[in-house]
Structures are given as C-alpha cells and as structure tokens.
Amino acid sequence: MDTLKARYLAAVANAADEAGLEEVRVGALGKKGEISGLMAGLGKMEPEARKAAGASLNALKDEIDAALRARKVALGDAALDERLKTEWLDVTLPGRPRPRGTIHPVSQVMEELTAIFADMGFSVAEGPQVESDWYNFDALNIPPEHPARQEHDTFFMHRAEGDNRPPHVLRTHTSPVQIRAMMDQGAPIRVIAPGRVYRMDMDQTHTPMFHQVEGMAIDRNISMANLKWTLEEFCRAFFEVDKVELRFRASHFPFTEPSAEVDIRYSNVGGQLKIGEGDKWMEILGSGMMHPKVLAAGGIDPDQWQGFAFGMGIDRIAMLKYGIPDLRAFFEADLRWLRHYGFSALDVPDLAGGLSA
Ligand code: 2NL
C-alpha cells in the first residue's frame, strides 16, 4: 500500500501538464484504474480483511485525489504565470497614427468663396443639374442656333420614343439656378450659385464635368462700378493679397450687355505664381450687366431694376490659389499629392477671408 501511494504521489508530482495529470488519474482512479481494480477485489475478501483493506484503499484514493487536485491548481497557476510573462500589454505605447482624409480642394474653395460673398450680403442658391432647355438656354437669351445648343457641345438627355418635346440637358452653367432664384425671390436680390456643370469637352485642360460659381446682384441702381468693386474685393480676400489689379476687357455674352472678361495681374518667377504683381494677365472670369431679356425671363422688370452678373470656374481658381499644376490632381490624386501642394485638411476661411492655422 505504501509503495502504491509513493508511486502515485510521485507520478502526480511529475505530471508536466493537465493532460499528464489526467493520465495519472485515469490509471489510478478511472473505471479500469489500478486503485479501482483493487477496490473491486474487496468483495472476494473475508469480512475482517475487507474492512481493513477497504479503509486503507479509501484513504489512499482520497490522498491521490487530493494530490491530483492540488497539482491541477499548481499547474494552472504556473500556466497563468507563463502567459502573464509573455502576453503583456504596454499601455503607455503611443497610438498608431491613422491617416486622416482631407477636404477636396474644390470643396474647400467653394467654402472659402461662399464665406467671402456671404460677408458682402450674398446668399447661396442651388438647383437641379438636369435642366430644361428653357432654363439653361432660352431664359438666358441663348438663341436656338447658338453653338452651345448643338448636339456637339452639350449633353442632351434622351426623350422616350415619340416624345417630341425638347430634351433636358445637363446644365452647362449655373445660370439656370440664378433664373430660378429671381423667379422665387424677386428683386432686390444678391445670390451666388456654385455647383457642377457639364460640357462635352475633354482634353489636357478641360473635363466634361467641372465646377462653376456664378453670382448676381439686382437692385435699383446697380452699375458696372458695383461689379468692379465686388470682384476686386472678392479677389483680395480669396487670394489673400492686399492689392489686386483687375483688367476689364470688352467681350460678348448673350446674357449680359455690356459684357466684360476679367483678367488678374500676376507674375511667374521660376514657376512660382504671384497674384497682384508682375507684368502678366490671366483671364479668371466673365461678367457684365444683366441683359434686360434675362431679367424679364426671371420675372423682374428691367425698367425698374438693373443687375450685374459674373461667372467663373472654381477648378481653375482652386488650381491658381493652391498652385496645382494640372487637372489630374483632382481626379487621380491621393492625399500625398494634395499635401505636396500644401493642402492641409480642414483649413476653413475665417471671416476676414484668411486661412486659419
Ligand atoms: C464665363 C462667363 C458669365 C454670367 C456668367 C449670368 C447669369 C444670369 C444672367 C446674366 Cl442669370 N449673366 N451669368 C454673366 C456673365 C458671364 O460667365 O466665362 N464664365 C466662366
């Protein structure tokens, strides 16, 4: 009995893990285990001998059982200690930086110019990108034979078979939004209409979808002088320079009379463009006094009211302000490309028109 006990206690002590321990338990106390076998043999003994052997076998069983439990706890503790040694977390490690998205240059410029014109009393108007030909062309005094109305230049939406009404178009400018604003709000009115416009044009410097902002101010005594001041004020704030110089060149648009194309003075020193100085001129927008027919189409009496209007490409002025050299930056660029041009995320203009840090 004593050798049995010594053998099993040694086996328990030597078990290296829970599986080894279970092997020892099954060998001793399992259904076919050695101790269980001896206990089964008690029935064949004389009552006296059975009593003594039974008592010591039970004591042995209890002792082995207790040793097994103790060893199991010890092995569990050791395993936990081992895990704690290897699986530790350094909670003082700094977090891994995650790349943040940035606002798109076109979106940022829209926010900037919206804030600048808001300071001058202009609100923002929006409208549909799919327009009727009346809003996109007729209301703007663009005659049916005008090149913009040919299949070639404008995206026309198909009508159903047998529907002979004139097709809708993807708006070619945001002027229709201004017509709608005139009809909805009447005069006096000051609005800008920024948004997407579409023309069938695709080369190094043109994309079929681009962004435009148009603006207009209609009141009792609006003149070209108001137009000039408004555009100069806008350019000073937008390009963040104290002095800008604009040049108004006589031009022609169907929707304004008189009309002027506007150039801004700039210099180019080794590829570095500077606005407001130098001996170069760059065309940045078209403008004029609103044509009486266009005022009338918007439901405003041209004998009572005058207005100025202008239109400019947002993509272009975004490229100019942020020194972005070509259109690919807008369509194929990743964030590294934008950062390369000094474009930081979430810079928004403050009320003075400057960029906050
Ligand atoms: C250009 C020319 C211009 C306008 C847009 C306008 C809108 C209405 C009435 C009269 Cl509702 N005019 N818009 C006026 C002059 C020029 O844009 O070259 N844009 C890039």
UniProtKB/TrEMBL annotation:
Mg(2+) binds at residue 257. The keyword Cell membrane does not apply. Residues 107-332 form the Aminoacyl-transfer RNA synthetases class-II family profile domain. CDD domains: PheRS_alpha_core (cd00496). Pfam families: Phe_tRNA-synt_N, tRNA-synt_2d. The keyword Zinc does not apply. Keywords: Aminoacyl-tRNA synthetase, ATP-binding, Cytoplasm, Ligase, Magnesium, Metal-binding, Nucleotide-binding, Protein biosynthesis. One of its GO terms (molecular function) is phenylalanine-tRNA ligase activity. Its cofactor is Mg(2+). PROSITE patterns: AA_TRNA_LIGASE_II (PS50862). Its EC number is 6.1.1.20. InterPro entries: aa-tRNA-synth_II, aa-tRNA-synth_II/BPL/LPL, Phe-tRNA-synth_IIc_asu, Phe-tRNA_ligase_II_N, Phe_tRNA_ligase_alpha1_bac, Phenylalanyl-tRNA_Synthase, tRNA-bd_arm. HAMAP family: Phe_tRNA_synth_alpha1. This is Phenylalanine--tRNA ligase alpha subunit.
